[in-house]
Structure to design on (407 residues):
């Protein structure tokens, strides 16, 4: 107890007067939407764009999209995609009567219990996401090309005839597939399990992104992408839906071992910041601080971190609502709590500056690793258990549902 009180006193003094550049921290905390540690809204977040989209949308309009940008804590580091907090968010929205779905897949690199999937075959992937399958066994690889896409990795064929299949959880009749194009791109055909194939050529003079849309006459649960040339076909991701019902699609763009710098790299058309512009989500949730303050991954300096958050916030606000979210704290063995709090203050300040909402998960978790570690909520010095991410997803859903008047 003495140690915990000492940490609390040091952090309080640091935030109020000792840390250079924190002069606006108190004002920022007072001026933006946050949540109390008991999980109830103290100042309700608004999400005006999402609320308006739900009010005016119909099945004939494009789907409502929520993109979650983060690191392994977002991707699902427990080894099961369904245990990641974005999936829990979808589950909670459905319980509240909102048809939220997660029938999409992206290259969540470094998922499945911390295994780095980039540069390997996809054999590791099925334990993390059993919706994916492929033939033959080594037909596809998860690669990054030094610059990853949403989730970090891209799926690339290794031979003609290689087929990548995705089985949805619900019956669907429409799927969008995003592919990377470039000088070395090959050709492929894509189809539902029943129905004609759509052919696509990914060869182009310059690097780019091409979207194809598959439509089925009857509901199905599986799509396949088959390389028809030895030249590689590179898939960025896919999203499937029922065209006859209004849905809120939640895209998990968690990228293991990533920093804010990875997500704001605009050097390739398929990087997260560029794909945000292409997809134009109605809500973007940004949960990036752990790797930015961890020496192993840089760390990213506070000025650079602020600039990266600003860019992501500006891009998110271009199409919809923006939520910046602090992450559950890491052990002080990875970084001191004083430094961790410095990054949290930047999150609050950028949220206030860019008119984003703010959800304070770090405070909800007690502000230190020890508080939740005592509950058995950590797998290691930074990653949570399935119970921990369930709590996080439920906590985020309370804020979203309150903004929509559903709770």
């Amino acid at each position: 107890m003495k140690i915990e009180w000492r940490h609390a006193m040091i952090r309080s003094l640091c935030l109020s007067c000792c840390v250079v550049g924190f002069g606006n921290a108190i004002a920022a905390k007072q001026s933006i939407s946050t949540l109390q540690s008991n999980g109830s809204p103290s100042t309700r977040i608004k999400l005006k764009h999402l609320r308006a989209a739900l009010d005016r949308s119909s099945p004939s309009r494009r789907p409502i999209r929520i993109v979650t940008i983060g690191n392994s804590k977002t991707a699902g580091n427990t080894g099961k995609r369904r245990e990641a907090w974005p999936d829990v968010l979808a589950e909670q929205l459905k319980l509240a009567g909102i048809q939220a779905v997660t029938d999409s897949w992206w290259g969540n690199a470094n998922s499945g219990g911390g295994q780095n999937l980039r540069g390997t075959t996809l054999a590791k992937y099925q334990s993390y996401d059993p919706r994916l399958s492929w033939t033959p066994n080594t037909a596809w690889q998860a690669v990054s090309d030094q610059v990853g896409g949403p989730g970090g990795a891209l799926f690339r064929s290794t031979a003609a005839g290689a087929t990548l299949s995705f089985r949805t959880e619900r019956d669907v009749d429409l799927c969008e597939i995003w592919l990377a194009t470039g000088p070395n791109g090959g050709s492929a055909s894509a189809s539902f399990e029943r129905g004609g194939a759509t052919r696509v050529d990914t060869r182009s003079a310059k690097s780019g992104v091409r979207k194809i849309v598959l439509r089925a006459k009857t509901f199905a649960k599986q799509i396949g992408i088959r390389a028809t040339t030895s030249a590689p076909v590179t898939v960025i991701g896919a999203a499937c839906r029922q065209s006859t019902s209004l849905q809120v699609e939640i895209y998990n763009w968690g990228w293991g071992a990533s920093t804010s710098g990875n997500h704001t790299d605009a050097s390739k058309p398929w990087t997260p910041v560029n794909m945000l512009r292409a997809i134009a989500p109605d809500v973007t949730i940004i949960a990036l601080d752990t790797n930015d303050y961890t020496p192993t991954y840089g760390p990213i300096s506070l000025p650079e971190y602020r600039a990266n958050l600003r860019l992501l916030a500006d891009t998110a606000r271009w199409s919809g609502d923006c939520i910046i979210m602090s992450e559950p704290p890491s052990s002080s063995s990875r970084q001191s709590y004083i430094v961790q709090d410095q990054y949290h203050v930047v999150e609050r300040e950028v949220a206030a500056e860019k008119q984003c909402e703010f959800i304070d998960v770090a405070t909800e978790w007690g502000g230190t690793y020890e508080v939740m570690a005592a509950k058995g909520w950590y797998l290691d010095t930074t990653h949570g258990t399935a119970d921990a991410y369930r709590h996080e997803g439920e906590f985020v859903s309370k804020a979203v549902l309150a903004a929509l008047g559903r709770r």
In short: Residues 1-43 have pLDDT under 50 and may be disordered. The first helix runs from residue 2 to 18. The CA atoms of residues 181 and 202 lie 5 Å apart.
